[in-house]
Amino acid sequence: MTVRDPERKRISWLQPWFVAVDVWQTDRMTGLTAELVVDGRIPQTPVLAPNGLLVCYVLAPTSRIGDHLDTELWLADTNGVTALRRASTDIATESRPRWSLDSDALFFLSDRADRGIPQVHRLTLADGTVTALTNWCAGIIDHLPLADANLVALLAEDEPTEQDARRARDRDDAIVVGEGEPRARLRMLDLRTGRVTTPDVFGGRHVVELRQRPDGGPLAVLTQASADKDYGPRTGQLHLFDPVTGTAEDLGTVEAEARSLTWWAGEDGWHLGYLALTPPLLQAGTAVFDLAIGSGVLRNRTTGLSMCPTELRQTNAAPLVLFADGLNTALARLDPTGPTILSRHPGRLDDLSTTPAGEKIAVLTGTRYQPANVHIGPPTGPLRKLTDTRPELDGITLGTQQPLAYRAADGVALDGLLVLPVGKTASEGPFPMVTIVHGGPYDRYADRCQLFWFPSAQWLAAAGYAVFLPNPRGGQGHGHQFATSVAGRVGREEWTDILSGIDLLIAEGVADSDRLGIAGSSHGGFMAAWAVGQTDRFRAALVNAGVIDWGMLAATGENGQFEAALGGSTGWSGIGPHPHDAVSPISFASHIHTPVLILHGAEDTNVPLGQAVYFHRALRHFGVEHEFVIYPREGHSIRERNHQLDVMRRTRTWFDRWLRP
């Protein structure tokens, strides 16, 4: 029944009561509550011991109460013989577990002594003792136990000096941009003496990542000119550092956004690989790059593939690579002739860890109806579930999730997901339908459980909505050309890709054309704002941390140059008109008639709050019904428990108001 039904018009004064009863009945049937979602705990960063007998992982709450996120380290027997156990009992933020090469000790970061200031700690498995190894005033950013059992490489900023303390007391703290910026430096911890030294290498550059050669040789070191997120990722360089002599060698520049340093031995000597954006565009698909140390030849090892590499992991032989492959994931070995697929897995695989020989892996993965847990097995599969961190979700009824394959208006093959209302089949449609666009845009929807605190398919499905999760151009999973096709053209083909999926679901009787909503966060928020400026088909929209003006974002966002690549220009690209104006939702504000819910974190540096303020003022100017909610203390992602609860409840209330009269 639509709002045009005369019977519904005669009882419109009862609308709030009907909506409340409908939602309450659905929740009662499914057992799903907002508290159940935000009060969960999720496993992160599993790390296999070199002997393969234990895996350590971080257990983190979905939401934060108070000023600190209290996380825990857990140990699991990979053979499943003994029960899971906590590595320590402190209330602290614990992270970055790293094993000693003999598997007898676990190194990790913890702020147990001074909250917010992480230090390196060591758990000795033989007696279960935990020892603090550093007391660095600035805190430790990362650490790497070396082949020499007496040494641990550290990444840490400089400790404050007496002059710094005096200036802070006197409030003589004017900031000169480019001077005195915090930079992570390489430091060496000698476990015999407890002394931390700082080698005079890399010319004061910001150190990003370390990886020791598998034979215990030099460290590969990735540096940037600055820690500035707009500038730094475009200035990467590789170096070798010898921990014995303390000397360094420069290997040259790397591609933008380089990460995941990985060594392997070839017939021509040692190779050093990494993941980075495919040149020349800053908005492009990720590739695996291979640098032959002896010759200095750099190759793209994944060119031409219809998949996108997401993780690269070192072994004592050929490295392992995870690929986003459509809605699913492939695990491959990087052989001299190219990637060799070892196994394929539904949905996502994340945080891959491997034993040195590569015969056993640990990874985070789940199913359509189960959140991700630690799984273990051989690279060729199958993988065995090792943890169950969300038992409270057992027995909760979720909406049926199914993959979609369809074609864009110009014939490009596309995919996505459809989640049906809980307890319903497609033949019972049409249903009110909300399209949720993913962020990035270099991200994707994988065929995994779609239940999160932010606008998620299963949360809306529990309230009776069908939910469409499209993977338009610009995202992962379909190769470099698919990803880079939106550079300078955001809102063009990716918008018609989304419309093609919506039209298909309307034609198949799943979606009610009179009850359509659209939502998204970050780049998905941009697409929701863009959509309502292009059409009146949607009855309601949700814009969470969305991009409203690309020129403004390039000027003020922490990733300005990357945003400029998406928008196509910057404000300093001449007098204009500028290409980014033609793809900015603010340019079409006068066309908007759809009610819009705007959500934004007050301290968002990725997409600053000014974007939402700009949109709010435009909608107010043109008299468009909207609601603008600012979350204090929050950045690009909402972390506080009460704020997450508000997002979930407000989202559903908003769509209930406009799509279910």
From TrEMBL:
One GO molecular-function entry: serine-type endopeptidase activity
Domain Peptidase S9 prolyl oligopeptidase catalytic residues, every copy: 457-659
A GO biological process held by the record: proteolysis
InterPro entries to which the protein is assigned, alphabetical: 6-blade_b-propeller_TolB-like (IPR011042), AB_hydrolase_fold (IPR029058), Peptidase_S9_cat (IPR001375)
Highest rank taxon of the organism: Bacteria
Keyword vocabulary terms for this entry: Hydrolase
Coiled-coil positions: none
Keyword Hydrolase: yes
The keyword Metal-binding is annotated on this UniProt entry: no
Protein name from the UniProt record: Peptidase S9 prolyl oligopeptidase catalytic domain-containing protein
Species for this entry: Amycolatopsis taiwanensis
